[in-house]
Amino acid sequence: MKTTPIVFSFDKRMEMPAGVCIFSLLANADKDTFYDIFVLHDAEDDFTDSCILRLCGQFPNCRISFRAVSDVFRDAFEIRGITRATYYKLLIPEVIPEYDKVLYSDVDVIFREDQSHYLDIDMDGCFFASVNSVPVMNKDYLSYIQSIGLSPSEGYFYAGNLVVNAKLLRERNMVPVFLKHLDKHYRFQDMDIINLSCSGRIKSLPPAFCLSGTYYEAIVSKREKLLSEYTGEELDYAVKKGIVHYNGPKPWKESCLNMDIWWEYYRNSVFFDEKFAFDFWFGQTFLLERMTLMKRIKLVGRYFREGGRK
Predict the structure, then answer these.
(1) In the predicted model, what is the mean pLDDT of residues 225-241?
(2) What is the domain partition of the chain in residue ranges?
(3) Does domain 2-272 have CATH number 3.40.1190.10?
């Protein structure tokens, strides 16, 4: 068996989506992959009887451990409803000392293939490996990253899915470097911290490693622009097998791109609740009727604009 350590961080409010995420990981594991799963969480959250542990009975090729982190992020900046748990990935080198290289993933994610091969990549002296978001950035985002001192030519990398070179991060004592930024009110929190602290030391991976909604839209409707960055095969693979990252609207809360993929895994998981599903889809059925006239006009306008671009 090939042991593949992977780290998640979340609080009790995200327990169900986290369970669906981890279910998708295990459901797509190769027969010779063993996932050593770590959950980083607040000390005040009790996961002793977490429903997520039920996955160990369903999938014998895994171990799930919960590790409380210190309260160093108690007053960390929060924005857009993203809680301080997003910062916990910065502590991975210290909290997961038994591995030199690990995977990290947010839990607003669906996996569609085995992930163990990502640990085989040569990190080339880099602290992290991830997907460069610059090729799909709009002018506002480009202006923002430049305003905090980053150069688009160096890339700006997603922090929701990472290959973590924990050994090198420990050797260079990078955790204190990360923590020096905690008094800053960065728009993208931990992602800004990682990009600022590790600029030039993040390895670029194809978009399959983090298929955000922005990347999915670009691959489908602006494909030609991306062919200067990736091969057609890489783009096709991302759409078919990539890690679907719902880094905007969440499919368990509202309609969004690729929500059908999340709901397929949810319905097949041990976390499925018929009442929750009924309430959600009943609400979606009458969503258009509840829209104001102005929102309906904007929706129709967007349809024609995007249709024209295609």
Answers:
(1) 97
(2) 2-272
(3) no
